[in-house]
What does this fold into?
Amino acid sequence: MPDTTAVIVGAGHCGLAMSHCLAARSVDHVVLERGQVANSWRTGRWDSLRLLTPNWMTRLPGYAYRGTDPDGYLSAPEVRAMLEDYADTSGAPVLTGTTVTSVRAAGDGYVVRTDQGIWRAPAVVLACGAATLPAVPPLARLVPDGITSVTPAGYRNPGELPRGGVLVVGASASGVQLADELHRSGRPVTLAVGEHVRVPRTYRARDILWWLDASGVLDQRYDEAGDLARARNVPSMQLVGSPGRTVDLNVLSAAGVRLAGRLAGIAGGVAQFSGSLPNVCALADLKLGRLLNTIDAWAGGTGERFAPTVVRSAPLGLDLRSGEISTIVWATGYRPDLSWLDVPVLDRRGRIRHDGGVTACPGLYLIGLPFLRRRKSSLIDGAAADAAELTRHLAGHLDALAGRRMRSAS
Ligand SMILES: Cc1cc2nc3c(=O)[nH]c(=O)nc-3n(C[C@H](O)[C@H](O)[C@H](O)COP(=O)(O)OP(=O)(O)OC[C@H]3O[C@@H](n4cnc5c(N)ncnc54)[C@H](O)[C@@H]3O)c2cc1C
It folds into this structure.
């Protein structure tokens, strides 16, 4: 059984960022990856996807974007290449093709079982992704036979879907991008809209993410958030990685996408939509206004304001047996997969309990979850600060462990 000081599970950007920080402190470690480096960007992204964060925001510990297009947006293959390069230049000790099948507490540390052997280490960092599994609502099982169901993780391009109408459920970043792409492919698209975060791509002549970064909005800390549980569940922003292009509900409905309320149920083959669409849109407009006010208060002056979301008559029902809809895209979010974790840190719903990535089990950490330590924790740009703080904590834990061992030996 090989020993190391820390095992990192996952070689996405978070695992590699942790590896970089641990190496800087000379903490011996290994990164175990079930696929290859940047596996999610190889296996779980659709063809046309581009980051919605601009290239200058693609920053990791010891790495900054050096290309010729700082205001562009990387494609998934470009993210993959960037992370491979980062792993190489950092000399990250990644073992690919190694699936972790259990992590169990043993003595002062953990036993990490994999399909390639067993590791023992006093510290384990779970960097295995917040978006490992699609979060499809239970009502999906009521969809009548004959309708194709896909999730953004499995969808690649419009050509792979059957002809005919599409119901896209969910209007966050993935939902609005896929509704837009499928509508452009010539399909009639209905978009079921629940709570969403409306933002313009450009504000006061700059990318909205420039403002969120510069004004400190993305740096807001988890221990300063009023309602952390809610902040951790805020949907992703309605953005697409295309310079100057806003894809909000007004843009989509003007192009011909039909808007409906949140998908509330399916009964007898009929999809039932909530009647709350006008309220949900009014709330998103209100929050957009508040965000722009925050930016203006920081920058001084006042920028442009955007027309309220226009809600025309929205359907309350859609007969899924009529042949009008051939595909449903469940753009309803993602969830982590920690089913292999044999350490008592999960709540009744299988979510991990933690304080900014520090679990109640000494030496067990996690990174990469929404608002883990900051509003930007789930973004590539959020990994540097989180990894630095978690590494400090982990090093403190190792020091305390070494002190205890020395005292008990003397
Ligand atoms: C559609 C989409 C678009 C996004 N766009 C942006 C964007 O524009 N800008 C931005 O900053 N962020 C974006 N993100 C958010 C975030 O950057 C990505 O989700 C990113 O992939 C998360 O990195 P990670 O390292 O936390 O997890 P991942 O990249 O998912 O890496 C986790 C790794 O762990 C491995 N793993 C999992 N389980 C095991 C196991 N049991 N044993 C061994 N290995 C395991 C996986 O194979 C994977 O390689 C986007 C996310 C999604 C889903």
Remarks:
- The first strand starts at residue 6 and ends at 9.
- The chain has nine helices and 22 strands.
- The two ends are 27 Å apart (CA to CA).
- The mean pLDDT is 96.
